[in-house]
Design a protein that fits this description.
With about 180 residues, the chain is α/β, with parallel strands linked by helices. The protein contains six helices and eleven strands.
Length: about 180
C-alpha cells in the first residue's frame, strides 16, 4: 500500500509520526509530503521535520491512502492549499481511502467529503464536519474515510488502517509487538 502522509507548518508531529511509524512497521510504503514548496516543516511543537518530497512533486493517483495529521495551524495550512483540496477530491471521487486525525477531519468536512458519514474530530471542530454525523469514538471508519479524535488515538488510527488495508490479524500481531494493549 502506498501512503501519502501530508504535513504542513503547524502540524501535530506525534499524530503524524505515530501513524507513519505503525504503517511502516506493517510494510506500507509511506511518503511524507510537505504541503508547501520546501521540504522543511516547522511543526506545532517547534520540532523541524524534513519531508520526503513536496506536494508539487507528487501525483495523487500514485497513492492508495491519503493521511492528514491534525494541529490547528497545520490544519489551516491544509485548508489553504488548493492543490491538496484537488488531490483529496480526486482521491475521494475514486473512493480510495483517506484518513485524518484531530482537527484535520475538518478539512474533509469543508470539502463536503463527510456528507452522511459518521466522523470524529478534536473537540471544537465538530461544526466543520459539514454534513457528517459526529460521534465521539476515538477512531471511526465510514466507507473509505477514517477519522480519529486526537493525539491519544494516533496508534489506534495506525492500527485501524493496518487492520483495514492489510489484515486484522496483522494489526493484532503488530499491536502485540509494540506492547500496546489499548486497541
Amino acid at each position: 500500500m502506498k501512503v501519502f502522509a501530508f504535513i504542513a507548518d503547524g502540524s501535530e508531529e506525534v499524530e503524524c509520526l505515530a501513524v507513519i511509524d505503525v504503517l511502516k512497521r506493517a510494510q506500507f510504503d509511506v511518503t511524507l509530503v510537505a504541503v508547501k514548496e520546501e521540504k522543511l516543516v516547522h511543526t506545532a511543537h517547534a520540532i523541524d521535520i524534513i519531508a520526503d518530497t513536496t506536494i508539487s512533486d507528487i501525483n495523487v493517483s500514485d497513492a492508495d491512502i491519503l493521511f492528514l495529521p491534525g494541529g490547528g495551524q497545520g490544519t489551516q495550512n491544509f485548508k489553504d492549499s488548493k492543490e491538496l483540496a484537488d488531490m483529496l477530491l480526486a482521491h475521494a471521487a475514486k473512493e480510495k481511502p483517506i484518513a485524518a486525525i484531530c482537527a484535520a477531519p475538518s478539512v474533509l468536512g469543508t470539502l463536503g467529503l463527510l456528507k452522511d458519514r459518521k466522523a470524529t474530530c478534536f473537540p471544537g471542530f465538530e461544526e466543520q464536519l459539514i454534513g457528517a454525523r459526529h460521534v465521539r469514538d476515538g477512531v471511526v471508519t465510514d466507507g473509505n474515510i477514517t477519522t480519529a479524535r486526537g493525539v491519544g488515538y494516533a496508534l489506534d488510527l495506525g492500527l485501524r488502517l493496518v487492520s483495514l488495508y492489510k489484515s486484522p490479524e496483522y494489526a493484532k500481531q503488530l499491536k502485540a509487538a509494540i506492547q500496546y494493549d489499548q486497541f
